[in-house]
Specification:
- The complex is a heterotrimer of chains A (about 325), B (about 350) and C (about 350).
- By secondary structure, chain A is mainly α.
- Chain A folds into 2 domains: about 60 residues, no CATH class; about 240 residues, MetI-like (MetI-like fold), CATH 1.10.3720.10.
- In chain A, about 75% of the residues lie in helices and about 0% in strands.
- Chain A has 12 helices and 2 strands; from the N terminus they run αββααααααααααα.
- In chain A, α2 packs across α12, α4 packs across α7 and α11 runs antiparallel to α12.
- Chain A starts with a helix and ends in a 5-residue tail after the last helix.
- In chain A, about 40% of the residues are buried.
- With about 350 residues, chain B is an alpha+beta fold.
- Chain B has 3 domains: about 45 residues, no CATH class; about 60 residues, no CATH class; about 210 residues, MetI-like fold, CATH 1.10.3720.10.
- Chain B is built from 15 helices and 8 strands.
- The two termini of chain B are about 40 Å apart.
- Chain C is α+β, with helices and mostly antiparallel strands and about 350 residues long.
- Chain C has 2 domains: about 230 residues, P-loop containing nucleotide triphosphate hydrolases (Rossmann fold); about 100 residues, Nucleic acid-binding proteins (OB fold (Dihydrolipoamide Acetyltransferase, E2P)), CATH 2.40.50.140.
- Helices cover about 25% and strands about 35% of the residues of chain C.
- In chain C, a hairpin with a 2-residue loop joins β9 and β10.
- The longest helix of chain C is centred in the middle third of the chain and has 18 residues.
- The radius of gyration of chain C is 24 Å and the shape is elongated.
- The chains are: A mainly alpha (about 325), B alpha+beta (about 350), C alpha+beta (about 350).
- The interface between A and B is large, with 99 and 94 residues.
């Protein structure tokens, strides 16, 4: 077995070695010609080129894109219309009745995403904190339990969506269990509020472990003898949590909350596979709106999608700046990381 | 067994049950069921035949009807246990018309009995519908989808390891003006999620002619900022004296990177490789947008397409979902230690 | 108030026995020091008394009541941790008040107790600061203050001085002793430093590998160590210990030296070990010990002489003043036979 591994390793390494060796001569030449600076540029070039072309450039283009209209894909072939796309997105005759909006689907997606973010993040953080607290007790096989909670994080969102679609199906196992207990089955994915709840529940299921692990790391940074001192002081467990654990965990938790918020605003993959935005538009979220308007629907309007994505990006910038600010504030407090 | 029992019953209060022990026990137990239950249910369901899948309430294990060869009939007949005024016996069904079944005793196949279907239950044994797994590969495109996913994952990981390590090398082992700016730039790209650049990114990919190609899927994803930071952190711990000694030995910078720094960074490269494999295997939104021809679908996009059809063939869909899940489960079982350690270390970046 | 009795305390972690049957009685108002090399179980024993860990078997009694099953909070004790364990996110005042708030004490009384403790420990100007802004010595006082405000039955201190630098340690030793005198409460102090033990304790408990080697006042331990371990542990520099055999003139060491013993001491047949403190040796041209000097440490008021006997045994002598002794020269040393310690073949004290 070890011999096989060695052989396999050598087989993979051989072509790489050959390439590396072939590159040596020309790179030496380059080093002589362009010096250290040239080599630094060489090492940075591939990665930065990809960042530049596929991340930074699109961002810049996007801003311009959102001011254009027309069916053409390439920016150069589109017609400039200023802020029209934004106006179209944001105009409503009567803001209290979303159906009067020009782009009511955008507003539906916006409000759905807003509700989702508030509900999902609060639940997620509460459950993740509770899980982290429980994992923090001196359990034997803590590694095993950490792995258990982390399992869904590794699954692909499509797999997650399909697993739960199967379970929540009208004839699925959850309804079977309910029927077995004498309760009425629920059409989980075809009733508006239940579908929304399912989207929240499934995304929490999929990401809980990730946040629980980060919070666990924060908990483990709290010295154990603080808890012993509190024990000597006769402190009841609730008070230990509110007055010692939580304040010392707070810097860590704030970062986690912002991370969760950022991810929640972009919710798409699991929810899309689970409900496809339905029933109707009950679970239509911002990213899916952008996808539909930009690519999937027959009335493709890339400019509109671009404007919507810029708006979503602005929300995210605020959150990301908050995260950076928190990091800076933590460091200044000499905070616990 | 006693070790497991001791582990399960280890308590904080020492001898007695503290309420925190009860909560812990329940929480962990519930967690185990809620987390592994669905995946287990997926696997069990994937082995059921279509008929079994439409049963309600569903059975736990996959069953296949027991059949028997009866002389005089060309195909095997399904067996049932019949209970009526004539007693309890085992009969084989020839044909069913409405609520009445024509059944024969396998021992005495000439006599056809008419039995009400309410009086019978099928004889079943645990049986696995392996065809759920084989058919998609043999008759449908899933072999193709799998090939595409493997290609994308493998290529992307190789390129990621290479470009990220080169950039991390430059950023950790060289001092130069603008190093800070480059780092800030990389942090900035971390803040730009895919959903914000979907449309223009697509136009760029279309512009270079990579729409509907696997390379169009691969290229935008390889320059991961998390990877660069991870490798950079690790490379910072490699003593500079090693490089200086190599330079005195007339090694070129390329050789230093390839022969010294890269091998020494192996543990961090392994962690990044694991992350990259999981990320690329699971990618969905971008491949969904770039790929519109079935031949180039990756597994995730293919799965989603199958699930979106009007008549979803659940028995194939479930099996393919399990297969899509397998590589990640393998990573989980063998390598999760590295992942959780990596998250705890760099998770906040 | 503050009488603590331990009955046959044993503690095992899995297969490893850390405490192997400790019996101890601590009187009210005593300052007892647990001392011993690392791993001897002194901190574990302290935690048993505190209630932070439970013994595998045995009983802990406080003021006549069996508290073995009681939680740490209910024993009425206060502990000063080695790392001080101050709540970093609370001010000093809040740190001091925290434990008292758990008992639902009226605010006025809490403030009064904090003021009293702050006065005693001279930390009044620090009350609104956070632990992170304090020096090591100040943090230690706050930790002690936290214990004082609880007015406990007994104070438990787990190596409170080991995180301080040498100079601070000396002054804190005096302060802790002064505090004990003022409060009059029982104190149990754990340390690995035998100088601390000697200077502070009413009684010292010497522990090694989970058993009590000797319990006595510091001077009694110094003058009459019960076995070889205590003899070598107490006193710095350590006692000279030489194996030898009993003979007509006294004890004969390998190499020929014969050391006379005090009158009236019965020597057993067979092997014994001689103990002689470096401070009890003096220059004596007619003395029984002839040694070759290997090192002279001149400290000014006294000199520590390292030498080797004819049989190769190491000898340490602390001589007053600055005797001019060259390395390599031979010195002859004598002693008062009453200062000699004798231990039998099993290491136990004779006489």
């Amino acid at each position: 077995m070890a011999a096989l591994k060695q052989w396999a390793g050598a087989a993979v390494a051989a072509p790489l070695e050959w390439i590396a060796r072939a590159l040596d001569a020309p790179l030496r030449l380059w080093q002589r010609v362009a010096g250290r600076g040239g080599m630094i540029a060489f090492f940075l070039a591939p990665n930065m080129a990809i960042f530049g072309i596929f991340v930074l450039l699109p961002l810049v283009i996007n801003v311009a894109y959102s001011t254009t209209t027309g069916g053409a894909l390439f920016l150069s072939e589109r017609r400039f219309v200023g802020l029209d796309q934004y106006r179209r997105l944001l105009t409503c005759d009567d803001y209290s009745d979303l159906l009067t909006c020009q782009e009511d689907q955008f507003w539906t997606a916006l409000t759905n995403t807003g509700t989702f973010v508030v509900l999902q993040v609060s639940l997620l953080i509460a459950i993740a904190t509770a899980t982290a607290l429980i994992l923090n007790r001196s359990l034997r096989a803590r590694g095993f339990w950490r792995a258990v909670f982390f399992f869904p994080v590794l699954l692909s969102p499509v797999v997650v969506g399909l697993i739960w679609r199967w379970i929540l199906d009208r004839n699925g196992v959850l309804n079977a269990a309910l029927a077995g207990m004498g309760l009425d089955p629920v059409n989980w994915l075809l009733e508006r509020n239940w579908a929304f709840a399912a989207a929240i529940g499934v995304t929490i299921w999929a990401h809980l472990g990730f946040y629980a692990l980060i919070l666990l790391a924060g908990l483990q940074a709290i010295p154990r003898d603080l808890y012993e001192a509190a024990e000597m002081d006769g402190t009841p467990p609730a008070r230990v949590f509110w007055r010692i654990t939580l304040p010392l965990l707070m810097p860590n938790m704030l970062v986690v909350i912002v991370l969760a918020l950022i991810r929640a605003v972009q919710v798409f993959d699991e929810a899309f596979v689970l409900t496809g935005g339905g029933p109707g538009t009950a679970t239509l979220f911002l990213t899916q709106y952008i996808y539909e308007v930009g690519f999937a629907s027959l009335l493709k309007n890339p400019g509109l999608a671009s404007a919507a994505s810029i708006l979503m990006g602005s929300i995210l910038i605020v959150l990301t700046l908050a995260q950076l600010g928190l990091g800076r504030w933590n460091e200044r407090r000499g905070g616990k990381k | 067994m006693s070790r497991a029992a001791a582990f399960l019953t280890r308590r904080r209060g020492g001898a007695g049950w503290h309420w925190t022990d009860v909560v812990t026990f329940l929480w962990l137990g519930a967690g185990l069921v809620i987390i592994f239950g669905p995946a287990l249910w997926l696997v069990l369901s994937s082995f059921k035949s279509p008929a079994q899948l439409s049963e309600f309430p569903p059975t736990l294990l996959p069953y296949e009807a027991r059949t028997v060869e009866v002389p005089g009939y060309d195909r095997p007949l399904p067996l049932y246990i019949v209970t009526d005024e004539g007693g309890t016996r085992t009969l084989a069904e020839v044909r069913r018309v409405g609520t009445v079944a024509q059944m024969v005793d396998p021992e005495a196949p000439d006599e056809v009995q008419r039995i009400d279907i309410a009086n019978r239950t099928p004889v079943r044994a645990v049986g696995f519908s392996w065809s759920n797994y084989l058919d998609p590969f043999l008759r449908f495109d899933f072999l193709n989808y799998t090939r595409n996913s493997v290609f994308v994952t493998g290529m992307a990981t190789l390129i990621t390891l290479l470009t990220n390590s080169m950039a991390a090398f430059a950023l950790s082992k060289y001092e130069f003006r603008g190093r800070g700016a480059v780092l800030v730039l990389i942090v900035a790209t971390l803040m730009i999620p895919l959903s914000v650049i979907l449309v223009p990114l697509y136009s760029i990919i279309a512009g270079v002619g990579l729409v509907n190609t696997l390379w169009g899927v691969i290229l935008p994803t390889v320059a991961t900022p998390t990877g660069v930071f991870l490798l950079r952190q690790y490379m910072l711990t490699i003593p500079d004296e090693l490089l200086e000694a190599a330079r005195m030995d007339h090694a070129s910078e390329w050789q230093i990177y390839w022969r010294i720094v890269l091998p020494l960074t192996a543990p961090a490269l392994a962690v990044l490789a694991i992350f990259s494999v999981v990320w690329r295997w699971n990618d969905f939104l971008w491949p969904l947008i770039v790929l519109s021809r079935q031949e180039v679908y990756t597994l995730q996009v293919g799965l989603n397409a199958y699930a979106g059809e009007l008549n979803v063939q659940w028995h194939y869909l479930l099996a393919m979902t399990v297969i899509t899940m397998v590589p990640v489960v393998l990573v989980f079982v063998f390598l999760q230690r590295f992942i959780t350690a990596g998250i705890a270390g760099t998770g906040l970046k | 108030m503050g009488r603590i009795v331990l009955h046959d305390i044993r503690k095992a972690y899995g297969a490893v026995e850390v405490l192997k049957g400790i019996d101890l009685a601590i009187d009210e108002g005593e300052l007892v020091v647990f001392v011993g090399p690392s791993g001897c179980g002194k901190s574990t024993l302290l935690r048993m008394i505190a209630g932070l860990d439970r013994p595998t078997s045995g009983r802990v009694e406080i003021d006549g009541a069996d508290v073995t099953a009681r939680s740490a909070a209910d024993r009425g004790l206060a502990m000063v941790f080695q790392s001080y364990a101050l709540y970093p996110h609370m001010s000093v005042r809040q740190n001091l008040a925290f434990g008292l708030q758990n008992t639902r004490m009226p605010r006025a009384e809490i403030d009064e107790r904090i003021a009293e403790a702050a006065r005693m420990l001279e930390i009044e100007p620090l009350l609104e600061r956070r632990p992170g802004q304090l020096s090591g010595g100040q943090r230690q006082r706050v930790a002690i203050g936290r214990a004082i405000v609880r007015r406990p039955t007994a104070f438990l201190l787990d190596e409170p001085l080991s995180n301080l630098d040498a100079e601070l340690r000396v002054s804190m030793r005096a302060e802790l002793s002064g505090l004990h005198a003022r409060l009059g409460a029982t104190m149990i102090h754990v340390t690995h430093d035998q100088v601390e033990a000697m200077t502070m304790a009413d009684r010292i408990v010497v522990l090694r590998a989970g058993i009590v080697e000797q319990v006595d006042t510091p001077l009694a331990l110094y003058n009459r160590p019960a076995n070889l371990f205590v003899a070598g542990f107490i006193g710095a520099p350590g006692m000279n210990l030489w194996p030898g055999t009993a003979g007509p003139g006294g004890v004969e060491l390998a190499g020929g030296a014969v050391l006379p013993v005090a009158a009236g001491v019965a020597l057993p047949a067979g092997g014994v070990t001689l103990g002689l403190r470096p401070q009890h040796l003096r220059l004596d041209p007619a003395g029984p010990l002839a040694a070759k000097v290997t090192l002279v440490e001149a400290l000014g008021a006294e000199s520590v002489i390292h030498a080797a006997l004819a049989g190769g045994q190491r000898l340490l002598a602390v001589l007053p003043g600055q005797p001019q002794l060259a390395r390599g020269s031979t010195v002859t040393l004598g002693y008062d036979p009453a200062a000699l310690h004798l231990f039998d073949g099993a290491g136990q004290r004779l006489g």
